[in-house]
């Protein structure tokens, strides 16, 4: 098994990417290939005493900027470290790809280079987020499709259910629809029509769920259009970050508070770990022929290691075939 990693994607590239790649190769005993400028990769590894003798490097000097338009990966940046990794997967030179780079470009490249699975109308960007009860849920779509039809949202529900069952090992994942109320008649035409379709789909549909409930573990898969999903995603991440900083500031406020912090330090660290997105590795782009994972832009070595772990689980579970089988069950359902 070979996993390709974009060495120049993300804020902490290439050092943290290299460290994560080496850790994954040593732990999982698989082939790892880094795409990017070979001279820089070797220079950074040498400066930080990192042995990369077991890591393959596929050289290219191009890197797609994080603020570049998504379609640029098919044009002026079609030989970037990201594009090169996607091409290796598409050409069966590797089994999966991980990048912490430009999200939009990765979604476009995954769709047009790796290609969609048969029957998939639109791939979904699907981040897995932590909950306060120590569990997690998938948000799909997280921003790849700003508008969507009911049949596309139904497909998102199926894609998310397969992933949460096969990769996250969630038995009979609860699929919910994002809405402004729990009643079946709530929302606009998109929500009402999607509700009806999900009721007839081969998933464990639990109805509408309001966004205030997702952090408490109300569902395993939260389905919405990409516009709604991206707002939810950024708000979720922002609130979690603000909450963490606020708690820290409170305990630093006075000597009395600092002493109090000593008594609850262990519980605070457990809480912090509960809300740590690094353990989930990244967001899969679901609905394409091979596993492609988008790691967070601020990914460190641990994030990359976990992204590789999830990619391996995705491959071993044969997720693409399971998705195609699930879509075949839709035949005859109007």
UniProtKB/TrEMBL annotation:
Q: Which GO terms describe its biological process?
A: fatty acid biosynthetic process; phospholipid biosynthetic process
Its localization reads: Cytoplasm
InterPro entries (alphabetical): FA_synthesis, Phospholipid_synth_PlsX-like
UniProt keyword terms in alphabetical order: Acyltransferase, Cytoplasm, Lipid biosynthesis, Lipid metabolism, Phospholipid biosynthesis, Phospholipid metabolism, Transferase
Q: Which pathway does the database say it acts in?
A: Lipid metabolism; phospholipid metabolism
What Enzyme Commission number(s) apply to this enzyme? 2.3.1.274
Query: Could you tell me one molecular function GO term of this UniProt entry?
Result: phosphate:acyl-[acyl carrier protein] acyltransferase activity
Per its record, the protein catalyses:
a fatty acyl-[ACP] + phosphate = an acyl phosphate + holo-[ACP]
Give, as one word, the top-level EC class.
transferase
Q: One GO cellular component term, please give it.
A: cytoplasm
The UniProt entry, under NCBIfam families, shows: plsX
Described by its record, this protein's role is as follows: Catalyzes the reversible formation of acyl-phosphate (acyl-PO(4)) from acyl-[acyl-carrier-protein] (acyl-ACP). This enzyme utilizes acyl-ACP as fatty acyl donor, but not acyl-CoA.
Question: What is the similarity comment for this entry?
Answer: Belongs to the PlsX family.
Subunit description: Homodimer. Probably interacts with PlsY.
Q: In its UniProt entry, what is this protein called?
A: Phosphate acyltransferase
Q: Which organism is it from?
A: Ruminococcus bovis
Query: What is the gene name?
Result: plsX
């Amino acid at each position: 098994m070979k996993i390709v990693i974009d060495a120049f994607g993300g804020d902490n590239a290439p050092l943290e990417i290299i460290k994560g790649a080496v850790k994954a190769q040593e732990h999982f005993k698989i082939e790892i290939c880094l795409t990017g400028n070979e001279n820089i990769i070797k220079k950074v590894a040498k400066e930080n005493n990192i042995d990369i003798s077991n890591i393959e490097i596929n050289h290219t000097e191009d890197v797609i900027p994080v603020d570049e338009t998504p379609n640029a990966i098919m044009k002026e940046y079609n030989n970037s470290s990201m594009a090169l990794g996607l091409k290796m997967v598409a050409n069966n030179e590797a089994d999966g790809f991980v990048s912490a780079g430009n999200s939009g470009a990765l979604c476009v490249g995954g769709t047009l280079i790796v290609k969609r699975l048969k029957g998939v109308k639109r791939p979904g960007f699907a981040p897995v987020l932590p909950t306060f009860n120590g569990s997690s849920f998938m948000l799909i779509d997280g921003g790849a499709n700003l508008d969507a039809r009911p049949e596309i949202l139904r497909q998102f529900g199926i894609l998310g259910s397969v992933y949460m069952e096969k990769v996250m090992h969630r038995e009979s994942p609860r699929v919910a629809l994002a809405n402004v109320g729990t009643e079946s008649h709530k929302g606009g035409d998109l929500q009402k029509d999607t509700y009806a379709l999900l009721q007839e789909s081969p998933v464990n549909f639990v109805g509408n769920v309001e966004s205030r409930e997702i952090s408490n573990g109300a569902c395993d898969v939260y389905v919405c259009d990409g516009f709604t999903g991206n707002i939810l995603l950024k708000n979720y991440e922002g609130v979690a970050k603000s909450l963490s900083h606020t708690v820290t500031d409170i305990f630093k406020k006075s000597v009395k508070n600092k002493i109090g912090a000593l008594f609850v330090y262990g519980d605070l660290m457990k809480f912090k770990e509960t809300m740590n997105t690094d353990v989930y590795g990244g967001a899969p782009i679901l609905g394409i022929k091979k596993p492609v994972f988008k790691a967070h832009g601020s990914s460190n070595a641990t994030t990359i290691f976990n992204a590789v772990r999830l990619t391996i689980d995705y491959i071993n579970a044969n997720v693409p075939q399971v998705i195609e089988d699930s879509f075949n069950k839709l035949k005859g359902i109007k």
